[in-house]
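User: quick one, sequence for these tokens?
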């Protein structure tokens, strides 16, 4: 599978998610957070998706820590994304999109 077909696969998933009623009910920051996580998926890394406030927040309009955490909590509550590893001590939290199978082993 070439780079083009992986990109199309990722964009199709992102588009399909925007059509879901659950996603439409999210607040605008939560939709941004979900989009940011979804676009971290490369087509083969589900389960080890990284989306941190420090690294990605400002670029996605989620530079405020409280706003970022509130958006993340709202998305996680929907069940569209699950956390596969809790972050801390220099390790980022990792996530999994529940619409597709886990594709990568989660590091300890």
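Assistant:
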């Amino acid at each position: 599978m070439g780079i083009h077909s992986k990109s199309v696969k990722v964009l199709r998933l992102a588009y399909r998610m925007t059509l879901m009623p659950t996603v439409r009910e999210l607040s605008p920051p939560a939709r941004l957070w979900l989009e940011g996580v979804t676009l971290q998926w490369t087509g083969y890394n589900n389960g080890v998706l990284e989306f941190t406030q420090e690294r990605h927040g400002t670029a996605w309009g989620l530079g405020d820590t409280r706003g970022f955490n509130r958006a993340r909590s709202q998305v996680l509550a929907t069940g569209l994304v699950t956390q596969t590893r809790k972050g801390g001590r220099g390790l980022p939290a990792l996530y999994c999109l529940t619409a597709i199978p886990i594709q990568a082993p989660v590091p300890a």
